[in-house]
Design brief:
- It is built from eleven helices and eleven strands.
- The protein is an alpha/beta fold.
- It has a domain at about 1-145 and about 180-205: NAD(P)-binding Rossmann-like Domain (Rossmann fold, 3-Layer(aba) Sandwich), CATH 3.40.50.720.
- It has a seven-stranded parallel sheet, sandwiched between helices. The chain has a two-stranded parallel ribbon with strand order 7-9.
- Helix 4 links the parallel strand 4 and strand 5 (about 105-110).
- Helix 3 (about 55-65) packs parallel to helix 4 (about 85-100).
- The structure holds NADP nicotinamide-adenine-dinucleotide phosphate (NAP).
- The site of NADP nicotinamide-adenine-dinucleotide phosphate has 25 residues, from helix 1, helix 5 and strand 7.
């Protein structure tokens, strides 16, 4: 039995689709979902449902009954009162379930930055999550992407209306990226493979070495119109997030994460690409994902 968390999220939804399509039926799939109506009728027919949040120990326990594998993702939650507390509120029940039930393999979404990132907000909390999960002794793969290309989708309205997106990352420094489809493909592959053991990070670093300015040039070419990056400060980004309703703690975490990326370079030029696990180029992603979204 494979348990999949966040089946309605941009990563989890694609992990679920890939596991259902590639699975041979030998491994039934159970999803933990807060609102089953957000799954398609076809998906609901093909999975077992456990309703609730995977932060709820009783829900997680029920979902993991008889399960040997789990796809794990801590959701981004701008309303959280504490970044570390938020990650722990999800991860502590997982560790209890691993220790008390028969879960053998965990595949989770984490991040690049181990050994380098310091005071990096959500990135530091995610790396601490890996350490807590690995300490249970479960077989564990931490999927480690840098910046998701899909982050740009949050700015399609501004790209569409004004030909501009706002960026708190330094404009002239390389920022490595990865497409959600590559994270999902690797997650599904690992969930369907029961030969791996122990703990390892799985870096997912796309082929590009573009700065935000270089990304804007690619976006301009693909959309066939001028598109530029508007540099904003980390403080401006933080103010925007609290303006949209994020807590002070969550917005500070994002600010710390951006500052750490700008100054510590762990999503930067020195990271080698991993063509086997992250083959999608930024240009391909723009053609296939951003262009239709920006038109819509
Ligand atoms: N963005 C980046 O550049 C980047 C880089 C590295 C790593 N990451 C990691 O990637 C992950 C992002 O995942 P994503 O893009 O798939 O997120 P997403 O699209 O925002 O999806 C969030 C999912 O979590 C569910 N959810 C939200 N709050 C919940 C709660 N309290 N209890 C249970 N479920 C809840 C949502 O379900 P509902 O339908 O119920 O709302 C949805 O399925 C994060 O873990 C982040 O740390 C991101």
């Amino acid at each position: 039995m494979i348990v999949i968390t966040t089946p309605t999220g941009q990563i989890g939804r694609e992990v679920l689709a890939r596991v259902l399509d590639a699975g041979d039926g030998a491994s039934p799939v159970r999803v933990i979902v807060r609102d089953p109506a957000r799954l398609s009728p076809r998906t609901r027919e093909r999975v077992e449902l456990v309703q609730g949040s995977h932060a709820d120990p009783a829900v997680l326990k029920e979902a993991c009954e008889g399960a040997d594998r789990i796809f794990w993702l801590v959701p981004p939650t701008p309303g959280a009162d504490s970044v570390e507390g938020h990650f722990r509120a999800f991860t502590d029940p997982l560790c209890e379930v691993i220790e008390g039930q028969g879960v053998e393999r965990v595949v989770a979404v984490s991040t690049l930055g181990r050994g380098v990132a310091e005071k990096a907000g959500q990135i530091s909390a995610s790396l601490a999550m890996d350490e807590a999960i690995a300490a249970t002794g479960v077989h564990y793969r931490a999927l480690c992407p840098p910046s998701l290309m899909e982050n740009l989708l949050r700015q399609t309205a501004s790209i569409h209306a004004e030909g501009v997106w706002s960026e708190a990352l330094a404009q002239d420094r390389v920022v490595r990226t990865c497409a959600v489809r590559d994270v999902a493909a690797e997650a599904a592959r690992l969930l369907l493979d029961d030969s791996w053991t122990g703990y390892a990070d799985v870096p997912l670093v796309g082929p590009d070495t573009l700065s935000p300015e270089g990304m804007a040039r690619v976006v301009s070419e693909v959309l066939d119109r001028p598109v530029r990056v508007r540099q904003i400060t980390v403080a401006e980004l933080k103010a925007r997030l609290t303006g949209f309703g994020a807590t002070e703690a969550w917005a500070q975490g994002v600010a710390d994460m951006m500052h750490a990326q700008n100054t510590q370079g762990f999503y930067g030029a020195t990271r080698p690409s991993t063509p086997d696990t992250a083959p999608t180029s930024f240009r391909q992603w723009c053609e296939e994902v951003l262009k239709p979204a920006a038109r819509g």
